[in-house]
Amino acid sequence: MSLVDDKEESYSGKLYLFVPYLAFTSHDRKSVRFTFPLCVIRRVERLNSRSGVFALSLMTWHGMKIIVQLLGLRPTADMFCAVLRDALKRELQKGNMKLMKTFVRTCYSEHLIPVSSHVADNEREDGSLIPEGEGPLTSEIKYLGGLGLKYKFPGDAKKLREASKIKLWTAYLRSHGRNLTLLRYPQCTRLVQVGLPNRLRGEIWETLSGSLYLRFSNPGLYEKILKDNEGRISTSTEEIEKDLTRSLPEYAAYQTEDGISTLRRVLTAYSYKNPELGYCQAMNILTAALLIYMSEEQAFWLLEVLCDRLLPGYYSQSMHGTLLDQRVFESLVHRCLPMIHEHFQVVDVQLSVASLPWFLSLYINSMPLIFAFRIVDCFFCMGPKVLFQVA
Amino acid sequence: MSRQLQFKLVLLGESAVGKSSLVLRFVKDQFDDYRESTIGAAFLTQTIQLDDATTVKFEIWDTAGQERYKAPMYYRNANCAVVVYDITQSSSLDKARTWVRELQRQADPSIVILLCGNKSDLEPRRQVSKEEAQKYAEEEGLLWAEASAKSGDGVHEIFTSIAKKLPLSTPNRGAAAAGSSGPTPGNQRGTGVDLNKASTTTDGRPFVYKYTTIIYAPLLVVMAADLKRVQSHYSELVTIECGKPDR
């Protein structure tokens, strides 16, 4: 199919309908990508065919209009439309549209771009900085955020150019959708590469890694797991307990009971969600880092994506994924950097012993936090290959 | 003539017994109330003067305590091991026993093992008696000591007593110089390496630490390059400095 966006640019690629999701990737896998839950689709219109091409116009919750031209055979296109129509109907009956509306309010981006300025509303286009906190209209539902909101984010906001970054992201999110309706253009990747702004970081991590969809489709599960397992003790909870004060201990929040119990809840909830994996050292450091930028529930789902999809086998009992990747890394060094490989041989240093903690903790305990978070940004945007590139 | 001998020492023991804190006390004479759990392994080196003619340099491998990290055999080619338990946690001595058994079975037969009870400053919370641990150590032929990384008591003595037990006389002797043709780097098995003869190991710092600062440099260049691309799109974003490390 081909996708035509608001600037009349068109991209050819593949459209997938996995009920209840609609996803698109351009053929080069770079130009544009999206994954929409069907409930964010506000309206579908069949366009009078331009030169006999079968085309649909989709309007998303955030007011974006996308034109989809189906290039397959006519019966296939008809079938696609029928399936889409039925699926949309079912979403509406299940009340998912309503759920979606409350769900998106938990995202910081909704507070950067208030509801009133949906659909090409220009009143905030003057470029003025979005004020700290929220406007009067949007303050009823609090967006989710991490410990950083209370205990400060690492680094100097001025030096990190927080304000400019927020401005750039506001512009991007306004024109290309946000959270559940984000369209990923190369520009999105470039904005990630310069480092995410602190307040948006958690949400963008969720969106890019896809954990946002898990949180959306499993409302209340995190709280339920905690409640069902309240007071239970296991090997994992004992191991977690030992590491709570040893996870980013220099960060202010982790010197308070508040921060420690936040970390405890996420790690124990995950150990019950995935009892076979349980708890692996390094997850404490990772989770502590995530919690600076995201709420418990957000961190919980991101952890699920990390352990299950992005880094399978890294934190499991056998840690086979980590060990395998260390071998891959060593052989990459051997092949691409023979001089370095040779040097390590001469001084009898096994490279994997040094690199293991880098991969396991996503560099979070290997360098100053602000640098490490830049790597984590790229990791969630571009995938695990980033770990090898940095190493 | 004075000589310097190098030995590989590995620290083993249950999670949170204070392995890293013992090393920190020994190497830097510091104690940190807030310390991150060790992931994988960390390396440090420290030299001690044994007598006028001999200095011993320890290449210390500090390991993660959690069970699943056992897979990579960090004690491979180790000359000596410090198996640590926490005197306030009787279960940690059981774990130490498991480690001792494994070392006796799998490690180099000439390995010098010291059993160390850490946190001796927490006397009121003691769960492991001195007698019990000492008796076990004698049965197994291990060195034994108690120490406190927090107060510093007994820490230096651990390493000195190990050094005295190591085969210092000639680098080539020692029961398990198996396959070792001499004190060349990369062949540090069984006996120590005489650094006056080995030309490659000149500087006390292990390679990995020495170069971490250099590793940042290309990383920042990459980030800066990306920044330029973005700047071409947005003129208002003049520079984004990476800022100074704040931890």
From TrEMBL, chain A:
Segments forming domain Rab-GAP TBC: 195-383
Classification via SMART domains: TBC
Transmembrane segments: none
Gene3D superfamilies in alphabetical order: putative rabgap domain of human tbc1 domain family member 14 like domains (1.10.8.270), Ypt/Rab-GAP domain of gyp1p, domain 1 (1.10.10.750), Ypt/Rab-GAP domain of gyp1p, domain 3 (1.10.472.80)
One GO molecular-function entry: small GTPase binding
Pfam families found in the cross-reference section: RabGAP-TBC (PF00566)
InterPro entries for the chain: Rab-GAP-TBC_dom, Rab-GAP_TBC_sf, Rab_GAP_TBC_domain
Name by which UniProt lists this protein: Rab-GAP TBC domain-containing protein
Organism, scientific name: Clathrus columnatus
Automatic annotation (TrEMBL), chain B:
This protein's record includes keyword Transport: yes
InterPro entries: P-loop_NTPase (IPR027417), Small_GTP-bd (IPR005225), Small_GTPase (IPR001806)
Compartments (UniProt record): Cell membrane
CDD domains: Rab5_related
Annotated spans, Disordered: 170-198
Keywords assigned by UniProt, alphabetized: Cell membrane, GTP-binding, Lipoprotein, Membrane, Nucleotide-binding, Prenylation, Protein transport, Transport
TM annotation in the entry: none
Membrane topology: Lipid-anchor
SMART domains: RAB, RAN, RAS, RHO
GO biological process: protein transport; vesicle organization; vesicle-mediated transport
Protein name per its UniProtKB record: GTPase Ypt5
GO CC annotation terms, alphabetical: endosome; plasma membrane
First-listed, main subcellular location of the protein, grouped into a coarse class: membrane
NCBIfam families for the chain: small_GTP
Listed GO MF terms: GTP binding; GTPase activity
Domain of life: Eukaryota
Ranges in coiled-coil conformation: none
Statement: the UniProt record of this protein carries the keyword Cell membrane: yes
Compositional bias ranges of the Low complexity kind: 174-186
